[in-house]
UniProtKB/TrEMBL annotation:
Gene Ontology CC entries for this record: cytoplasm
Pathway: Cell wall biogenesis; peptidoglycan biosynthesis
GO molecular function, one term: UDP-N-acetylmuramoylalanyl-D-glutamyl-2,6-diaminopimelate-D-alanyl-D-alanine ligase activity
Domain Mur ligase C-terminal: 301-420
Annotated function: Involved in cell wall formation. Catalyzes the final step in the synthesis of UDP-N-acetylmuramoyl-pentapeptide, the precursor of murein.
Official protein name in the record: UDP-N-acetylmuramoyl-tripeptide--D-alanyl-D-alanine ligase
Amino acid sequence: MRLTDLAKVVEGKILNIEEDLEVKSFTIDSRSSTQDSVFIPLKGNTDGHSYIEDALKKWSVGYLTEKPLNFKNGILVKDTYQALKKIAIYKRKSIDTVVGITGSSGKTSTKELLNFVLSNFYKTYATSGNYNNEIGVPLTLANTPENTHIAIIEMGAGKVGDIDYLNNIVNPDIGVLVSVGHAHVEKFGSFENIIKGKGEIFNTSHYHVLPFDLLNYYKDKLKKFITFGEEGNIKVYDIKIIPEGTTGKVAYKNQVLDLTIPIFNKGIFKNIGAVAGVLYHLGLDPIESLKVLKEFNQIQGRGKIIKIGNLTIIDDSYNANPLSVKNAIETLNEIPTVKVLVLGDMLELGEESEKLHRSIAKEILKSHIDYVFLYGEETKYIKQELEGKKYVLHTDKKEIANQLKKLENSSPTVLVKGSRGMKMEEVIEYLKN
């Protein structure tokens, strides 16, 4: 579209248009402005209007504004955020199929896996990073290239109603629920509310994918659905950690695929089960199509393997909740080396935080993990449970890195995990430096 077309979409008034330039992308960060982008200033901790001039200097072709300004190629609107939503809804109409993905854990990995597979069959576009909130979702849709066949949209939620709000923008054809756990229980208020809030992914979509063990919670609202898991329609089983990564079986009816992917993460096969469910709804072979995943590699912070000297680091530092930490412990437990768990706080657990951190300690005690290094206020409860039973140290990130270096001679595998706010990747940075 061109600037004049954009003005019609957002119901805005043109300001100082020097040339009716083509618009190919949108940005809310002046630092990422490009020669074909329009800058959308949003109001948050700072007012984005202060950066309009910066965006134009960095080659943005135009900008939206709530204030009448004299800069070239502006479009005056009542509300820049509402204008962003209008662009997203307009772009959504031109996309053949949209897959909406939510869950307490695993939604980003499922999105990456699905995009990896589907890009072999269609022109796809997927959420960048974790742009999964009320700003990131419309921004993703707004930036969907022309002639995109399938858009894969990650949809996050912190309370009941969040997914329904995003549904009105995304209007997903296929709704995927990857998992339900205690993530964000502080914001949701209760586990029952998490069940309700995540289940909103099924409210507007026509085809549904979900874990078999959650079927009873949602069967009254499901339409055309398929389940995954050990007892699901798509069976996922016999998952093991081997030196090459993670291996397992995925089956549908009489088809069985033995798959090995170069990632240490037992939970990834549940995500692959969800991918198979989407393939089924798209009319693709849900098993044969998965063979390309043997070439899949994980993104930074999501289980990526990093070698530093004699240390093998599994960088799972991007986020953590009880469900994903339990999976991380199970994964690390199966690696046939000296095993080290580096864990930061699981945040946003509210009144259940102490209980849930202590429950993680119980999972560690059932494992063969050799060393546990803890960081943060809430992990003190894990330390209390482990003292005298496991080697445990509760300290700062720099000291954790120092202790890891002392273990180098034993060539350990080190899994690093914690909630996003804990920035546990800093331990890895200390090790590199």
